[in-house]
Amino acid sequence: MRLWFLILLILSIATHAQTPQKAEAQPATTSVQLDIITEKLNRPWGLAALPNGDFLVTERSGKLLRIQPNGTQSQITGIPEVYNKGQGGLLDITLDPDFSNNQRLYFTFAEADAEGLSGTAVARAKLNKETLTELKVIFRQMPKVNASNHFGSRLAFAKDGTLFIGLGERFHFSEKAQTLDNHFGKVIRIHTDGSTPKDNPFINTPGALPEIWSYGHRNIQGAATHPITQEIWMHEHGPKGGDEINRPKAGNNYGWPKASYGSHYTMVPIEDNHQQQGFVEPLFYWTPSIAPSGMTFVAPHPSVKEWQGNLFIGALAGRHLVRLIIEDDKIVRYERLLENQGWRIRAITQGVDGALYVVTDESNGKLVRLTPKR
Hints:
The protein has two helices and 25 strands. With 374 residues, the protein is mostly beta strands. Residues 1-16 have low confidence and may be disordered.
């Protein structure tokens, strides 16, 4: 009996122990060619590339825009009412993996009830020219609360077609990230109709919400699917420092607010006790914070061959573009690009032409095309 206990203990430690990498920026090895598509966006948040070369951009106020490569923009109708207060509003957007055939898209938004309590919601709809049709809300963060911060809400599709949703802990409700009876500080996994996959880790756990995939997160602001391993990667904001990149695995606890590489806003340190308490260490972290936002892996294309397989992340407080070079699932190089622009980069995606596109979080927000300068 004692032998089996020791084996299980060793396996548990091996599962959770990984050496986290602290962000140490190195000189950039490539310079960037910039082409501004438009500067007429008002606080853009989400960005998706359409197969015809156009882009869908969400604005926090509740507008969904189609942007053509020449900068021409039009508004798409059919968006439900959004809770546009604090950090709330119309947020992330992504296309169905089979969009070319079904024209489906998915978006997140802050939603309020009749009492003014709010939470993150996810909707599915069809894009019919300049109108959304067949709209259905497929997920609602519960419970709704009297708060206007940390909605999280990045989306990513797994290889099996399930939809992953990264949620915030709603700022004043950090302790709830450690319990399974709510959606605060959680990664959610659902089918595209809103139903729960039968192999979710807590589906048979009494008192747990079955759509939860992982927990102990803070405010998730980036999500992407690794092009080779097909794993979901996400990043989240720390408080003062401690921004993290994680690969959320089924049933894992990532420690917030019990463990972090950052400090509280009062400057009181938070214990770095991931392994002592059985929490999963982050893959990579920033202290001080850069406030990461948006996330994409670069797929092969002749226009960006220097960046193939790299992970790109925007930085809000850091006001730069993060380039992470990955080998064997390990980040081996960290570069800061566009530091001289001073842009709060909110979202990033790869276009059908292979180039990277970013939107900047400003009242005169930009959509910008990026390629390596040769």
